[in-house]
Task: structure prediction
Amino acid sequence: MTSTIPLAKGFSEKHLKFPVFLSHKIDGVPVRIDIDADGNHTIRTRQGKDVPSVRRLVQEFADVFALSAGLGYFDAPGTLIGEVYQHGDPYANFKDTSGIVRRQDDQSHRLAIGLFEMFTPALQEVGFERRYEAMLELNVLHGRVRVLGQHRVETLSQLEHHFEDFCNQFPKAEGMVARNWNDPFMPGKRSWGYQKLLREPTIDLWITGVEEAVDQHGNPKGMAGRLVASYNGTEIGIGPGRLTHDERTALWVHFQTGMFHKRMAQIKYKADDSYDALRQPTFQFWRDDKETPDA
Result:
């Protein structure tokens, strides 16, 4: 299924087109909010699924939004895209955050939304810089739904300096997001104008198989040892990483009994351009919110 939300690529300095806009990478669940001039709205994940957990939060925002937007950019149906995160802790563990966001009852009191993208017919031909200005011009900030700040940098050295300062100031953060000033709005597609700058590089891949762990004597241990991932059309081995003993045991049972189906996971690895595949890749957590791998 095609994603309803633009997708980021990994960092590549040769594809940057300055000025570039930097923002915090919040480790939450992206959502797409479509609102008409009357305040009617829908909330969808990347896969187009409803998000009941933030319904009241978005409704309160949409009501104020409809009264305040007037005949501006939202005189026709428009789209806002944001990251849902735990209120007060934008860098909380993704697994915990995802569990709250995907509940079928309202969790608005526990959540917040950082808006980072906007699109309307009036903005169809403009780049990210103008869309960000349009978000700020709306001047509608209601409670815990607000526009994420963007820091403009003019050169690569400024970007590197800002990223270093950011990592020192926010040690729990995964990294930053960089947007080229002229990056178009392209839901469902990966753009070099939309990049992830990560403290430790990660990649989201399909896990297609499981291999059993063995002890030092070669005896089977009855649990998952190495995971098998699809990477650029080839199979590579992934270390169990953050999987617990119980999770590894259950995973192996599911694989043996035919209950395991391919599943998206975030993989951490060491950056090394001399490797054709990934150096020391390890499992971090499942990404069931995604259906499009990074490679």
Q: What stands out?
A: The mean pLDDT is 90. The radius of gyration is 21 Å. Residues 55-69 form the longest helix (15 residues). The CA atoms of residues 56 and 68 lie 18 Å apart.
